[in-house]
Amino acid sequence: MSARLGATLPLLWNLLVRAGIRPLHLAIASGVSIGVALLEAISVSLLVPLLHGVIAGDFHFAARYPLVGDISRWSAARFGVSQDSSLLFVLTAVTFIASAAHIGLEAASSAMAIRHARAIAHQLRVLIFDRYLSFGHWFFARANVGHLTTVLTTLTTRVATELRNVNQNITDSLVLLAYFAVMFWISWPVTLAVLVLLPLAFLAGSRLVESIARSSMQDMAASKRLARHAFNVLSCIELVKAQSREPHELREFTVSSEALAQHEVQLELRRRLVGQGQQLMVLSVLLLLVVTTGILAVRGHARVVAGSLVYVYLLRRVSTRFGVVNQLRASVAAMAGPVAEIASILQESGHQPRTEGARPFAGLQEAIKFENVSFAYTKGVPVLRHVSFSVPRGATTALIGRTGAGKTTLVRLLLRFYDQDDGAITVDGLDLREFRSESLRGHIALVSQDTLMLHATIRENLTYGLDNVSPAALADALERSRLADFVRRLPDGLDTQVGDRGTALSGGERQRIAIARAMLKHAEILVLDEATSALDGVTEQAIQDAIAELLHGTTSIVIAHRPSTIQRADHVVVLDGGQVVEQGRPADLLRGHSILSEYWKDGTISLGGLRTASADHGT
Q1: pTM of the predicted model as reported, rounded to 2 decimal places
Q2: Annotated domain spans of the chain
Q3: Which of 556, 549, 618, 555 is nearest to 587 (CA)?
Q4: Distance (Å, whole) CA 404 – CA 383
Q5: Cβ(288)–Cβ(295) under 8 Å?
Q6: How far apart are CA 56 and CA 46, in angstroms?
Q7: pLDDT tens per residue, range 312-338
Q8: Terminal-to-terminal C-alpha distance of the chain
Q9: Does domain 3-215+269-347 bear CATH number 1.20.1560.10?
């Protein structure tokens, strides 16, 4: 067995165990396959005496067989027919019953294999999707969503299909053993000669199996490249069109697709060669037996002729299964690429070791504190350096700073999308990591500048993650977020589809949906990350009262450059280069030569709404 196949089998077994396949399932499947092989051996063996009697015109020899003689004598007496006719009827009936039982059990085996294969595909999809959901932002920041989708849907189906092929190969192997047992009974010298071909066939197919494993890995790599390219283009279609890159992207896609097609052709052709090569080796033996049978028929050896005819029939059946060992290895080899990819997902840690807390979060009592927090997305390139500040319960804290200062990163750490490298984030004196993430996030509402939308209806996006939202509460949130008039103008109202990532809506409409969703959550901790950045001045002014109401009574962290939002803050934290450079009340900071006032003067932030207040304080 090659090293590649040897590595694939343990991974495959681990996948089967995780997919819920137990030894009992395999034992049942093996038992059915053995039953199929035994019934096939019985039905084929019965052809020898049946053909012997037909060729010789005499069935009296069959009376010596157990039960056959007794049944034939009873039927001859019961129906008044000759014993020869009765023996012919009994042999034919027994052969038919054995063959029908074989066909029925084989159909049951196939149905069982199909059900098991589809159950495995389903369980693998659930396992992989659950794994995706458990990963943090580290994983998704580096992964390609197109490839992740391919692993979830296409590769699981491919593994299930190959497993069904493996089950068929195992059944065929047992049937092949049954055929050889009958062939030994008919003529053991000829059968020994046929068996000499098996090692030769095995060795001849070994190189093909190795090439199939290589082709499977190459096919997997080409599929990954194509999925990545398609996702990049389709997810950034506006950029592609704005840069007039459609012809270029089509050429690149065509090249990638053609490469994938070539690998798929190579894989399929090599798989087919495995079986075809084995059949060619059997052809010479088959023709030799046909000639021998003809000579014996001329000389009148009825018993030998009958056995030879059955032997020829068996050898023809064997020729279709002669390469079953190599076909079994080929099926495992074809799974090498998909199994490796699925196993890598299931074994993936998410790139950042993360422990889940056990403590439920009952609510904020005192304050959230960032204590000497440092963090880097890439080792050696810190984004936050020794950041410390406090967010008291019921207060609004504004985070101010230029792009890249680390404001959004602080929000991600609070939501435990990432864990800090150094320092601590505490809630009422307890480390944030002690709380269950699900419980903690249930008390936090997030409105970000990059509004995330499901490809679903407006209603589903508004109520996503929320239980038992009443029509009255929904209508109230629409009014307060200034969405009611917009929704009423839509033919399908709240049941209007928003498109992929909300592309059927404007940026302002998407942001207002996010604000309305936060209103419906009634969370005690509110995080606004440039929550009004996509709104024009008129619309923003129109919902300022709604935002003020949303902030009232909550503990809020606000990232904003708009004067109205900063004006409402109880505390301002100014970040620069990942460090806190100053903090305090907005009006106090604007009195002197602060960095906040410098931002105001150089246009980094627009503090026009604070200008009067600042002037009143002598600035």
Answers
A1: 0.70
A2: 3-215+269-347
A3: 618
A4: 8
A5: no
A6: 16
A7: 777 667 766 666 766 777 777 778 888
A8: 82
A9: yes
